[in-house]
Amino acid sequence: MTSAPPNTSSSILSVLEELSVTWRWGGPPTLLTISHRPPKPAVPAILASGVDGHTPLDLLAHWIDQCRRHRGIANTQRDLGVDAVAVSGEIDGQHIGYAMDRNGREYLVRGQRHGAERRCTSGTDAAARTRLPGLLTERLAELVWRLAGPPPPAAGSRIRDMWPTAGLIDLDEDELHERYALPSPTGDHVRLVTVSSIDGLAAVNGASTALTSSGDQRVYRLVKRDADLLLLGAGTIRAEQYGQTALSAPEIARRRANGLPPYPAVAVVTRSLDLDLSGPLFQRSIGGHRQSRPILIVPAAAAAKSRAAVAEAAELLVAGDQDVDLNQAVQMLRQRGHRRIVCEGGPSLAGQLARADLLDEVCVTITPQLLAVAGPRITAGPAGLPAGGQWQLHRSLLDEQGNLFLRYTRPGPSDRQVG
After folding, report:
1. Which end of the chain is more exposed for a tag (fewer CB within 10 A), N or C?
2. CA distances from 326 to 78, 310, 366, 376, 408 (A)
3. HSE-up (13 A, CA, CB side) for residue 293
4. Contact yes or no for 57/3 (Cβ under 8 A)
5. pTM surpassing 0.70?
């Protein structure tokens, strides 16, 4: 997650300090938008002022409702170059000026009724550290997402359309999201998201780190953001020391607005349960959010030996006898409400899903590297057992570093089509 430049941080705090100095006790809360384009200072604009008796929480809730009803409000604010949103008002007997920028960084100034001292703080958890209501952060984050939009793409990660329509305009986050939209927000869908070199290499020393790029990470985060569940093989967990990617408060607000929990669930397919239960994946908190235990999908033979040992760190899902039955596993995950599944690999798991006819979509990044070393392809499996099915190119995109993003789809069991 990109950090705000130092001059941005100080200028937003300056706005909040000025609000605190001029605050009239007993007055209504105020909602502001803040525009900042370095090297210019932050420029605040009052979006709304509450009526007497309303709290900052009430004012935020009202404007979230307005934004949901009237798309033009968000469009207008984004056109004005809004970078942060702030609310000023009284909470628990103190005045607070509380802002959040597009990266999810928080800025907080607090003052007491009978005192000139003001306490200033900033960071990604400023409100939590000062014990302000969590609902305040959640509502402000949703307004930031709606009014300011996502932060600009990192250097080198601007993306444009290639096919079916070529485009020379850089895609913003909403436009890119449309390019990867699922055919149905509630239908069953299994996506494979992966990266490959020009000569077909999917990993170096068991990890994809050498192949990825800022543009690839942009697409990767976007695809994961809409997932109910992330599905991985145990080898990927071991090789990459895998843990959840931290999301910003506005990204979490967007998931919640779409009816999703703050983070997708994680399921790991493992035949032997050879996993480090103290590793990053099994940490119970990320970004201040309590995580559900990872799901370990195992055959009955492994569950019988290790159920007690993993009970504290993970939940066991038994599918198959000596080997994992992926058809049964996916069906059980769907019964639990995990309908939008994103598989991150590795090659062995991807190959098993392909041979079991469980993949609905493949999102692959072709990185402009010719590595000429031994390594796996994006799918792997026993010789002489190719997967069936025909695939069609649904869309292709290109970033400024030459990474090619291909989205392949095919009809599913009920002949549904990707829109």
Report:
1. C
2. 45, 21, 27, 21, 22
3. 13
4. no
5. yes
Low-confidence ranges of the chain (pLDDT < 50): 1-6, 414-419
- What are the residues whose beta carbons fall under 8 Å from the beta carbon of 292, sequence distance 6 or more? 261, 265
Q: Given this model, what pLDDT does residue 23 score? A: 78
pLDDT at 7: 53
DSSP 8-state code for residue 152: P
Q: Which residues pair with 398 in a beta bridge?
A: 160, 404
What's the pLDDT tens digit per position in 144-167? 999 999 998 988 899 999 999 998
H or E segment and range at residue 373: none
b/e per residue 34-66 (b: at least 16 CB within 10 A): bbbeeeeebebeebeebeeeebbbbbbbebbee
Identify whether the C-beta of residue 149 lies closer than 8 Å to the C-beta of residue 78.
Answer: yes
Q: What are phi and psi of 196, to 5 degrees?
A: -145, 150
Q: Return the half-sphere exposure (C-beta side, CA atoms, 13 A cut-off) of residue 115.
A: 9
Q: Which two tokens stand for residue 20?
A: 């605190």
Tell me how far CA of residue 170 lies from CA of 39, 223, 317, in angstroms. Answer: 24, 18, 43
- Residue 266 belongs to what H/E stretch? strand 265-269
The model's pLDDT over 311-368, given as tens digits with 9 standing for 90+, comes to: 888 999 999 999 999 999 999 999 999 999 999 988 999 999 999 999 999 999 999 9
User: What residue type is assigned to position 164 of the chain?
Assistant: P
Q: In what order do the strands lie in the sheet with 118-123?
A: 43-49, 30-35, 82-91, 94-101, 106-112, 118-123
In 11-138, the DSSP E strands lie at: 30-35, 43-49, 82-91, 94-101, 106-112, 118-123
**What gap in Å lies between CA 3 and CA 217, rounded to an integer?**
17
Residues 6+ apart with CB under 8 A from 386: none
**Any idea what DSSP says for residue 204?**
B
- Structure tokens belonging to residue 417: 């089509």
3-state secondary structure of 126: helix
Instruction: Say what the pLDDT of residue 255 is.
Output: 93
